[in-house]
Amino acid sequence: MAAPEVLAPAGDFECLRAAVLYGADAVYVGARSFGMRASPKNFTMEELRRAAAHCHEHGAKLYLTCNILPTNEEADALPDFLRGAKAAGVDALIVADIGVLMLARRTVPELEVHISTQAGVVNYLAATEIHHMGASRVVLARELPLEEIARLRDKTPPTLEIEAFVHGAMCMSFSGRCLISQYLVERDANRGECAQPCRWGYHLMEEKRPGQFFPVFEDERGSYILSAQDLSMLPHLDKLAATGVGSFKIEGRAKSVYYVAVVTGAYRQAVDLLKKDPAHYDPPDWLIEETKKVSYRRYSTGFYLKGEPPGQYYESGGYVRDWEVVATVDGWKDGMLLCTERNRFVRGERLELLRPGGKPLPFVVESIRDEEGAGLAVACHPMERLWLPCAQPVPAGAMLRRRARDK
User: Fold this and answer.
1) DSSP structure string for 59-108
2) Which residues of 53-87 are buried (b: 16+ CB within 10 A; e: fewer)?
3) What whole-number distance in Å separates Cα of residue 320 and Cα of residue 297?
4) What are phi and psi of 180, to 5 degrees?
5) pLDDT digit string (tens) for 284-298?
6) Class of 5-173+227-300 per CATH?
7) Domain 323-403, architecture per CATH
8) Buried b (16+ CB within 10 A) or exposed e, 250-263
9) Has this prediction a pTM greater than 0.85?
10) Would you say the C-alpha torsion 234, 235, 238, 240 has a positive or negative sign?
11) What tens digit of pLDDT does each residue of 321-376 get?
12) Beta 385-389 vs 375-376: how paired, if at all?
């Protein structure tokens, strides 16, 4: 079978390099305007040029989000923005608005256009008509079960590409179109500024209905009745691929470079296993565990599998954080790793070495030397450059991590 595309997120150039290094077939990013994520650094047009060149040099593609619903004033600025994106070398635009789709087809007809999940495509009629209008791909609404995706694929033109999310945060509102943040704190989720009120703790009170009990789980911190679990489909990629989905999308343009590296690497290796033997896809436990070595909310399979309803995260609105990075690898020479410290560690400590394309390796810190060669017992200055013994070559971009210590 043709392996589905591994599509990774990047909020800045460091994340983009990690996504490419750890095996992404394509990376999606946002510019400083017209994108649905305001918190990441995002990319200037000059940075987009660098990003496209880096992706193309390593055989990957670059997709640019242009998926807000623009105001009339923003619509006036769109033609120049679209021409700038084409000049930068991006491979496709991701849009949610029909007007933006048609403007892109007229202004930059050479660029592919992908329809964002924000458009809420849930049936073959919408997908087919959008394809006739010039879109080469649809990113499906997240609310579709596998059976509906398979039917949509069967009844749409084979030239239409289908993309679906496989990992990351889920929104409690339909395909992410939510007004709660704007209503409560005047931060518009549909313009990339969501305050995530669905993750806040709430108390349910009804003073005039004594004796009526509502099925809401609550502790002294309140009740997280709107907070969704994160999505993880890594154990079920064969089922999703069998529906005809051709691109597996990882959520996370606001995530850290460590998150991008770990999750992209896990899905890259999982898709390679799927391609090798699709009839007997069975990812090893260590690969599934990789997705739990990042900051995440407890996982579910979203809406994909019938009988497994999307989960709510009642415990809190926060994350599970069981692992932390202690150093990033800048290079290797003559049996020594050149690293940049991120968290304190000591000589003799047992760590894990995360590397592209392979299982993490145990790593013992046999010695620590600063850049001048002086020996150290403790690495205790974040961003200090250090030398650590390592017999085998390791590429820049690898990371050393450990199970997080109790705070």
Assistant:
1) T-EEEEEE-S---HHHHHHHHHHHHHHHHHT-SEEEE--HHHHHHHHHH-
2) ebbeeeebbbbbbbbbbbeeeeeeebeebbebbbe
3) 6
4) -65, -45
5) 999 999 999 999 888
6) alpha beta
7) Beta Barrel (2.40)
8) bbbbbbbbbbbbbb
9) yes
10) negative
11) 899 999 999 999 999 999 999 999 999 999 999 999 999 999 999 999 999 999 99
12) unpaired
Question: What is the 3-state composition of the chain as percent helix, strand, coil, each rounded to the nearest 5?
Answer: 30, 25, 45
Element (H, E) at 333: strand 323-333
From-to residues of CATH 3.20.20.70 in the chain: 5-173+227-300
Which spans in 90-213 are helix H? 98-107, 124-132, 146-154, 180-185
| Residue 255 structure tokens | 């995530």
Residue found by looking up tokens 């436990």 in the block: 285
Question: What tokens were used for 173?
Answer: 């509102």
Residues in the chain, overall count = 407
For residue 5, the SS3 value is: strand
Comma-separated ranges of CATH 2.40.30.10 domains in the chain:
323-403
Q: Which element (helix H / strand E) includes 351?
A: strand 350-354
Three-state DSSP state, 264: helix
